[in-house]
Write a structure and sequence with these properties.
The structure is a homodimer of 331-residue chains. Chain A is of the alpha/beta class. The first copy, chain A, has a six-stranded parallel sheet with strand order 2-1-3-4-5-11, sandwiched between helices. In chain A, strand 8, helix 12 and strand 9 form a beta-alpha-beta unit. The longest helix of chain A has 17 residues. The first copy, chain A, is elongated. The N and C termini of chain A lie far apart (65 Å). Chains A and B meet through helix 4, helix 5, helix 6, strand 2 and helix 7 of A and helix 4, helix 5, helix 6, strand 2 and helix 7 of B. Chain A binds a DNA duplex (30 and 30 nucleotides) through helix 2 and helix 4.
DNA sequence: AGCCGATCTGGGAGCGCTCCCAGGTGTGGC
DNA sequence: GCCACACCTGGGAGCGCTCCCAGATCGGCT
């Protein structure tokens, strides 16, 4: 920078001000500095800058999930992409972190602690995940996507209304005259699927229907959904609707139903959760699904984090984003 | 760090050496420092460290591709994941960068130039992509995954043997007695699909078969594959085999063939490319596919980059990784 | 004319670390 | 017993930047 300043005929300080477009720089000086920087191919050293400013301009996006799940989970892919965009829009660089094994945990903590990033957006759906608790001890601003495992208060969370979404789905089925409404639930060690199952159960009870024995748990995969559907069908050949806790599992359920000769939606109506843009409308028949927008979630998370960066004492916020029902041919 | 040193009763220098486990520190001193660091909850400031060492410990993985493609491209997802792992294994942090629009280009260049990372692994499959050329001007070590657009020499590349893979596929079909072997090619503005198409053509000619009019180009998507297959079937109802340039397109082709009443492999044999672990074996029938391992590619790229970090003058290397044919029921 | 405040500039200090160098201590060989 | 050479330690310098402060310049107002 010294060189640039000399080349432009000004002092280091003035060059710095021009480069960071601070106030109190004459237009002439600013232009000379900018021209010099261009001619000399200069770009400021970020390490030096963040050493004194104590901020890096980078934000971590932490995905704490088993490895295999990330590969074919389209929702996570959307989160990465949206995270990148939303952060870029506020001039921040995304640093992706996959935290899976226990060994990753300490690495992740060390990284977040090391001053590489100014804050973190954390997705840790599993209730037993030790990461959220470990993060509490750090002085780095964190916003969680979905409920933080084992922590109820004092953290910033942006979640979707999972229970409300399930209610929408089941009410829709009840209104269509369905009486034997089963569900393929997601893993009950995560809060989102727990809430979805609860919503299904409550809504059935409200409608005077009996949920007993109409639940089958699966692992959010295609084959898991297919197997769960088989089990349900074996126990209750007369079921006339099913609420599936994710699109991917619904694809599996669809296959099973098809193989069992059930017409959809005539014999069995299907409603799922996620409304994944590439999956849900592409099925045969297109899936009715509870719509949640990853971009919207990330946007809210970034917004909260930016405020947190301004004011560390921002009082903890639990944002619950509304969901809607995208009705298609499967119901 | 000063505090840690004081607490441990040693000097700043000794503390630094202990923390970086340099040579020439007594075991006693090292332990005292480590204990002090633990007790004080100290973690070194990375900005200060990289200011003097001139390295950050971070490596960028740049994906230069249209946004929509990343979401459902399982190969890219595997690349991200493998990149994270392989880099973690050599003690480096991955910084993911999506570079799509032209506006992203300058942002990407600025970022890579800013000293945030020590090197970059770049995937830029499109021939018209301006990124590779822009990167040439930077003094940052770069290794390309797949051919770099518009650059033939002077860069480090780790690619798969696309043409050889296509040859394997077609030779397999010829050996099985197929005579009318069509192809669903990928976008011809990328080198991988170009090479695959060339391999198909050459192998047909070598076998004394006529490739004329048996090509249909598609965009690597499921629906693109389905449409291309329809077009081929319309022109050549008598085709008895098809080489599809990606698994995803093959899934589409399978649907079209099924809808047209063709039995697979009896009427039409299908061979695809990628051998995606979740997709290819899960199809009905399971797909014969040319196997390429993203992990292997990333591994080679990381290895080359690490050498490049040691020795900037490493002579440019073009590594072509071999592929194999995973034979399954579709052929 | 004189003064005051707004605008602009340059130098100094220091962010937290690593590296170099000078010096101290111990150990083995002659 | 003394030197040479390992091994270990502490202080100083400096990485490239931003921020603070003191001072300079300039216009506008009394």
């Amino acid at each position: 920078m010294e060189d640039v300043a000399a080349f432009a005929g000004v002092s280091r300080s003035t060059a710095s001000r021009a480069l960071n477009d601070d106030a109190y720089v004459s237009a002439a000086a600013r232009e000379k500095v900018l021209a010099a920087a261009r001619d000399l191919g200069y770009s400021p050293n970020q390490a030096a800058r963040s050493l004194v400013t104590r901020r890096t301009g980078a934000i971590a996006v932490v995905l704490s999930e088993p490895e295999d799940r990330l590969l074919d989970d389209p929702y996570r892919a959307a989160v990465m992409r949206a995270g990148y965009r939303e952060l870029a829009d506020v001039g921040r660089q995304m640093v992706l972190i996959f935290s899976d094994t226990r060994e990753d945990l300490s690495r992740t903590v060390r990284f977040l602690e090391g001053g590489h990033v100014d804050g973190a957006l954390v997705f840790a759906p599993h209730r037993a995940d030790p990461l959220p608790k470990a993060l509490r001890l750090l002085r780095i601003p964190v916003v969680f996507g979905g409920q933080a495992a084992g922590i109820r208060r004092g953290v910033h969370v942006v979640d979707f209304d999972n229970e409300g979404g399930a209610r929408l789905a089941v009410e829709h089925l009840v209104a269509a005259g369905r009486r034997r409404i089963a569900t393929v639930a997601g893993p009950q060690d995560q809060s989102a699927p727990i809430d979805r199952l609860a919503g299904w159960r409550k809504t059935l009870l409200n409608a005077g229907l009996d949920p007993a024995d109409l639940v089958e748990e699966a692992d959010f995969t295609l084959s898991g959904g297919a197997n769960a559907m088989s089990a349900l069908l074996a126990r209750h050949p007369d079921l006339d609707a099913v609420f599936v806790a994710s699109d991917m599992m619904a694809v599996g359920a669809l296959r099973t139903l098809d193989a069992a000769g059930r017409r959809i939606p005539e014999d069995v109506a299907v409603v799922s959760f996620d409304d994944n843009a590439t999956l849900a409308p592409a099925m045969d028949p297109p899936l009715t699904s509870v719509h949640q927008d990853p971009r919207e979630q990330i946007h809210a998370m970034v917004e909260t984090l930016m405020q947190l960066l301004q004011d560390q004492n921002l009082k903890p916020r639990q944002q619950i984003l509304p969901v809607s029902l995208a009705v298609r041919a499967s119901s």
